[in-house]
């Protein structure tokens, strides 16, 4: 007899029959679908390991696994963290075999084959931003108006406390409970002393604290605190970070923020505090400025996470810059300056430090939370931040440092905005480079000069055109040279 030997086996069950078999296995049962039915196994694992009440406690969002922990959702360190939950559990399960019941026997391949079905069954649309409702709830308040604390979810509109639930996909929670009667006398006395020269600055800080706690990003503002050593900046910075929770904030530098992987630490973090905010690299400073503008402005960003998929979306991060000196953020247009609410502290407490002050303020966090809510109420009512008395001083210096072109024009030219006033670029450009070298800067090409001067002030315009019968040439309109400057 010749030909191909055909191995006879019973026909595979139809899809409906398969599903009927696995549906008959009760949640929590020791009997599981076999490894060759990964989607059905995934359904049982979700029911047994990743469900609290009616809600899933594992989701897949924007390329990451997220687990519900301690009242908020946190990203798994890696896929292995999820597999670590699956493996020991599956070792205790059995499945049917033609020879009878056998151990499910997880292997690397079998567990790996479950990850895609789990992702499909728990996937959240990557286009949706946190916070968001992802399950049934009787709470009708918008998720953006809910703040998670140790003792519940606080409705910021009604100041009503609800039970914490995985139905709210929120990526951070506060490390203390809500107490509507809590006060913070030590903190308030400290601020009275620190802001004695600028009461408006104190109000702005209170509003920014409420803005950070609320999760809002719609006003597109960041906070800057400038002042000498021992002026209270450190205590303010540490208190705001403690208020939001140590694990909910990051502390990048300006230089690291402009690096290839510099934004990766911001994912899921509501607060970034940049201490000693100084940028030493001009090229990287340009990148840092661009990224700050994008994030503060609520633009979607693409983040390179080393050895992982790119993260794409809108960050919830609010920035607080703290420094002894005004930071240099290169930006000819001055747009970055307008993103900051800035305060300058003047009084140094050097030699008068109270070593117990930090601990006494930390004990008042529930009261400081209430203090911040008052700032949020005022911000909601006014729909804008209070402007500190010292902000103009900070921004004037910031403008000069951010835009050498602006400083150059201030020193050597009068901005008239009149089209009849104009200067040839071939005369103006070498003067700018000479001035730059005198102040320790670098020369720039003529094309770059034209771009920067066209962006520096709406009254100043660059054109390549003919004037009064003269030949076509590059000119800067709206300026005249100050007498005796060259």
Automatic annotation (TrEMBL):
Keywords: ATP-binding, Hydrolase, Nucleotide-binding. Transmembrane segments: none annotated. It comes from the Bacteria. Residues 200-358 form the SF3 helicase domain. NCBIfam families: primase_Cterm. PANTHER family: ATP BINDING PROTEIN-RELATED (PTHR35372), SF3 HELICASE DOMAIN-CONTAINING PROTEIN (PTHR35372:SF2). It comes from Corynebacterium xerosis. PROSITE patterns: SF3_HELICASE_1. Pfam families: D5_N, DUF5906. One of its GO terms (molecular function) is ATP binding. This is NTP-binding protein.
């Amino acid at each position: 007899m010749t030909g191909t030997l055909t191995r006879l086996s019973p026909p595979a069950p139809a899809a409906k029959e398969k599903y009927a078999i696995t549906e008959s296995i009760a949640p929590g049962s020791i009997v599981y679908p076999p490894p060759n039915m990964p989607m059905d196994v995934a359904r049982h694992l979700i029911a047994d390991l990743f469900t609290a009440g009616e809600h899933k406690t594992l989701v897949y969002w924007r390329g990451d696994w997220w687990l519900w922990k301690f009242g908020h959702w946190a990203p798994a360190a890696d896929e292995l963290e999820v597999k670590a939950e699956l493996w020991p559990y599956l070792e205790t399960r059995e499945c049917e075999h033609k020879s009878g019941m056998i151990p499910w026997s997880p292997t690397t391949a079998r567990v790996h084959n479950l990850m895609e079905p789990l992702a499909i069954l728990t996937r959240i649309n990557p286009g949706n931003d946190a916070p968001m409702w992802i399950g049934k709830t009787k709470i009708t308040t918008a998720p953006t108006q809910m703040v998670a604390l140790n003792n519940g979810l606080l409705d910021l509109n009604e100041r009503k406390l609800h039970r914490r639930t995985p139905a709210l996909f929120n990526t951070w929670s506060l490390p203390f409970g809500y107490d509507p009667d809590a006060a913070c006398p030590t903190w308030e006395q400290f601020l009275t002393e620190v802001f004695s020269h600028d009461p408006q600055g104190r109000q702005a800080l209170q509003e920014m604290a409420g803005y950070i706690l609320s999760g809002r990003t719609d006003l597109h503002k960041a906070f800057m605190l400038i002042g000498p050593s021992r002026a209270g900046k450190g205590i303010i910075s540490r208190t705001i970070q403690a208020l939001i929770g140590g694990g909910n904030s990051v502390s990048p530098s300006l230089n690291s923020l402009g690096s290839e992987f510099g934004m990766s630490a911001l994912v899921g973090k509501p607060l970034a505090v940049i201490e000693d905010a100084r940028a030493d690299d001009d090229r990287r400073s340009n990148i840092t400025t661009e990224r700050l503008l994008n994030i503060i402005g609520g633009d979607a960003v693409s983040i390179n996470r080393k050895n992982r998929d790119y993260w794409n979306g809108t960050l919830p991060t609010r920035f607080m810059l703290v420094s002894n000196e005004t930071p240099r953020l290169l930006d000819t247009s001055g747009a970055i300056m307008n993103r900051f609410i800035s305060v300058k502290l003047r009084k140094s407490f050097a030699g008068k430090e109270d070593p117990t002050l930090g601990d006494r303020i930390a004990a008042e966090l529930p009261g400081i939370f209430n203090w911040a809510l008052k700032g949020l109420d005022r911000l909601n009512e006014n729909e804008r931040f209070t402007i500190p008395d010292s902000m103009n001083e900070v921004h004037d210096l910031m403008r000069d440092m951010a835009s050498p072109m602006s400083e150059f024009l201030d020193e050597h030219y009068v901005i008239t905005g009149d089209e009849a006033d104009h200067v040839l670029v071939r005369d103006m450009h070498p003067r700018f480079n000479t001035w730059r070298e005198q102040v320790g800067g670098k020369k720039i090409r003529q094309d770059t000069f034209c771009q920067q001067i066209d962006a520096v002030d709406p009254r100043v315009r660059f054109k390549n055109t003919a004037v009064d019968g003269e030949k076509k040439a590059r000119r800067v309109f709206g300026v005249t040279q100050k007498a005796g400057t060259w």
